[in-house]
Amino acid sequence: MGLMFIAALVSACGSGKPGTAAPGRGMAGGDASGQDTGNATAEQVAAAARGDVSCPADTTPTPSGAPVDDIVGVRPGMTYEQAANTVMCSSPLLVVQPETGRGFDMQTYGQTIRQGFSARFAEPRVQKTGRQLAQEMEQAAMERGLNVARHDMQPGQSKWFVGTMGMPGQEKVISAARDQWFDEGRNPTIDSVEQALLAKYGTPTERRDRDTYHQLRWAHDPRGRLITETSPLYSRCNGAASPDDGVQLSADCGVVVAATVIPLRSNPALAQDLQVGVVDQAAGYQALTDTQQGLQAMDAARRAKQVQDASKNAEAPQL
């Protein structure tokens, strides 16, 4: 049975923990509420929000003989904190925020499970007049009416989503995805990007070349063996290259890496952006199952203790 990780782009600010947004620290111009005000560069915004980051990141290499399963050092099995630190070490402008609006629909019994985090480039903070805000809203409404696609990044930026699962405070990475939009004038060739992917991840299970995208997939079974076209798992073990997409979990599939290279419109031989995602389906499925069972056992223990306490401290009914 497969499980689908539900993608819904809603982010929330952190609470001052390392690697989460923390308002008001180290920035001039804060108001009485602790919120930052006044203009600030992207570097200043990032420095105030990133908290403690230790670089170079302490990463664990892929075990010998196992499929390559990392994206810029982030790989399944890392702790939430390790992954957040590694992501931020990939760029001094990346800020990590917990994701509370996407994840598995599961019974948490009142506990908080960190099901992942996103990371995006910090943007300059610019005080805008009411007129400027109104003009921006008018422009956005016009683009929606004309169905104009808006890219949510700028050239030279990247964004992440890292999915995690585990008991509270013990969450580990089950999936990761990164989108890199190449800087203007520095776009690599499609061929060089594909050659770099093949050099890192090896022979692909599948590749698709279209006018608007080039896709590659490296799918493995739970024992780490590459899935080929003759395998019954060939069409079942899929991944998600984009940070905006959800991932599928199945006990029948292992590590799946997916990559999408999007050509530059003005020159299809050059790459505009590269999306790469990885998921360990079997390990993620097991982590989800173990977490649900652990939460259920925790709640059962809580209820049993309440019954035990009631036998000692409960108020007798008046009859």
Structure characterization notes:
- This protein has 319 residues and is α+β, with helices and mostly antiparallel strands.
- The chain has one domain (2-28, 39-298).
- The protein has helices spanning 42-50, 80-89, 130-145, 190-201, 281-313, and strands at residues 2-4, 94-98, 116-121, 158-165, 172-181, 206-209, 214-219, 248-250, 255-264, 267-280.
- The longest helix is centred in the last third of the chain and has 33 residues, at 281-313.
- It is globular and about 85 Å long.
- The N and C termini lie far apart (53 Å).
- The relative contact order is 0.15.
Head-to-tail CA distance between termini: 53 Å
Order of helices and strands: EHHEEHEEHEEEEEH
Runs in which pLDDT lies below 50 for 5 or more consecutive residues are 5-34
Helix content: 25-40%
* Radius of gyration over C-alpha positions, nearest whole angstrom: 23 Å
Strand content: 15-25%
Note the overall shape: globular
Number of domains: 1
SS element count, helices: 5
The number of E-state strands comes to 10
Task: Describe the structure using short key phrases.
Lipoprotein; alpha+beta; 319 residues; single chain; eight-stranded antiparallel sheet; 10 strands
Summarize the structure.
This protein has 319 residues and is α+β, with helices and mostly antiparallel strands.
Spell out the blueprint of helices and strands:
Elements: E1 2-4, H1 42-50, H2 80-89, E2 94-98, E3 116-121, H3 130-145, E4 158-165, E5 172-181, H4 190-201, E6 206-209, E7 214-219, E8 248-250, E9 255-264, E10 267-280, H5 281-313
Antiparallel strand pairs: 1-8, 2-3, 3-4, 4-5, 5-10, 6-7, 7-9, 9-10
